[in-house]
Amino acid sequence: METLSPLLPREKLLRDGAMLLTDEELLALFLRTGTRSKNVFALARDLLQHFGSLHGLLSAEMKDFRRVEGIGLATFAQLKGIAELAQRYYCSGIRGINPLKDPQMTREFVRSQLAEEEREIFMVIFLDNQNRVLSHSRLFSGTLSHVEVHPREIAREAIKVNAAGVILAHNHPSGRAEPSKADRDVTARIIKCCQFMDIRVLDHLVIGRGEYVSFAERGWI
């Protein structure tokens, strides 16, 4: 088995920052070794192609790995641990922040939750009366191109956690973040429903692949 000297991706990370590493380089840095027939970069490339993306790799089940050469149970467990660590990192980072003062953190959090999903997911971030995050919840899930949203359920959940405001977010698995007429219509219905409960809707973020649209930035809220 060939062992990777971690200097190349590690040096790049230290010199340029982790954001400039490719998915293949990040995965190779973690794997460290290849197999008898593949160096670690070839293994990383093949894994990403097999599972479609980092999200596909990190969210795959154990049975999916049994058909992949070079991945044992120990590596599978480590990959699942990395996925959970990333989720907890973003969840712990978002709680208590003011999205109006740190919109980039909010966008990154929403993107981490929704960008790679293969079906539409509608998430709500609940805020207190000082616009600090109380909690978040994936309230509705749908198909590749549609999710059914019930405004009264959003208002009901907001009341449960004593929220004074909400930020709405959902993804477009197609990759295009541009909101549809249905997106704008359901947002208007949610705003109207929440107004009866004195709950403010601060924004609606639509997440695509590498892009987003903010209703607030567009002046629609």
Automatic annotation (TrEMBL):
Entry keyword Hydrolase: yes
Record domain MPN: where: 99-221
Keyword Hydrolase belongs to the record: yes
Alphabetical list of InterPro entries matching this protein: MPN (IPR037518), RadC_JAB (IPR025657), RuvA_2-like (IPR010994), UPF0758 (IPR001405), UPF0758_CS (IPR020891), UPF0758_N (IPR046778), UPF0758_YicR (IPR022820)
Keywords, in A-Z order: Hydrolase, Metal-binding, Metalloprotease, Protease, Zinc
Signal peptide: none
The family this protein is said to belong to: Belongs to the UPF0758 family. YicR subfamily.
Name of the molecule in the record: UPF0758 protein ITX56_19720
Organism: Leclercia barmai
Gene transcribed to yield this protein: radC
